[in-house]
Amino acid sequence: MPRQGDRRHSPRVKLYQRIVAAIDDGTFPPGAKLPPEPELAAHLGVSRSGLREVLILLQEDGVITRRQGSGSVVNQPPPAPGLERLLPVEALLGSGPRRCRRLAVEWEEPTDFSGYHLRMAPTERACFWETVVDVDGAPACFAHEWAADESVLRAAAGPALVAALGTGSAGPGPTATGPTTAGAGSENPGGPQEPRGREIPGADGAACTMLAAFLHSGAATMLTARSTLGATVLGTERGLAVSRPPETPAMLLTQTVSAAGRPVMAAKYLFPAGAPLLSLTPRR
């Protein structure tokens, strides 16, 4: 999926941030309906087409809900912790052979998504993982995951989550994790990018998603989450990443993971049409 960090100085990101700021300051409180698009565009001094792009992104990020014919509504605050059973996507994607391919590992400045969901300060840096999960040899999930700044991880859960990332510190640049060392299942033949940073193994020694690494850590019992589900299409960049047409429908799972009441991880999981059905088990 497109990287928000690549657009952080664009007019679209600035508009995204203006709307989020209006939600945070109570101008558009949770549950409130946003003004109609023509009125909101005029109020913000932007084009309707530009506003519509940002509203789509806000919906994908779980900030608002858009319904045809009824406008956009600001989502309610997350429910009390403990209402979900926290499982990595690898455990939800059926019973076929599964493999994770890491496309990127880097520390980066807050993006529109990570800054909002992790409540990051401008001086903090998020650890970003980009991973494709294959099932039966076919791409079934495209995962973008951000961990909060190292200082936040330590304050919320001690050293366990930092250790789970396999990085010594945030460092100055995108390859601060050191040279690439391939783990089992880390090959990426024909992929859009070569893996950067260090492959982080899961419990079985193979590459895994960030959530799986966190759940394998000693802090797993401290973690709670909230999630939203939405519909979207792959688009050009997403389609290339999973070898599917841009117009392919997809389900989008947006998730925020917390420890001690502090957001420590935020993620987008994109499941193209035709991916295995998610296996969801109610919490006991």
From TrEMBL:
Under the heading CDD domains, the entry gives: WHTH_GntR
Residue ranges of coiled coil:
none
Give start and end of each HTH gntR-type domain.
Answer: 9-77
SMART domains the record matches:
HTH_GNTR
Q: What are the record keywords, sorted?
A: DNA-binding, Transcription, Transcription regulation
| Compositional bias annotation for Low complexity | 168-185
Region named Disordered: 168-202
What are the GO MF terms of this UniProt record?
DNA binding; DNA-binding transcription factor activity
Per the UniProt entry, what is one GO biological process? negative regulation of DNA-templated transcription
PANTHER family hit by this protein: GNTR-FAMILY TRANSCRIPTIONAL REGULATOR (PTHR44846:SF17), MANNOSYL-D-GLYCERATE TRANSPORT/METABOLISM SYSTEM REPRESSOR MNGR-RELATED (PTHR44846)
Q: What name has this protein been given in UniProt?
A: GntR family transcriptional regulator
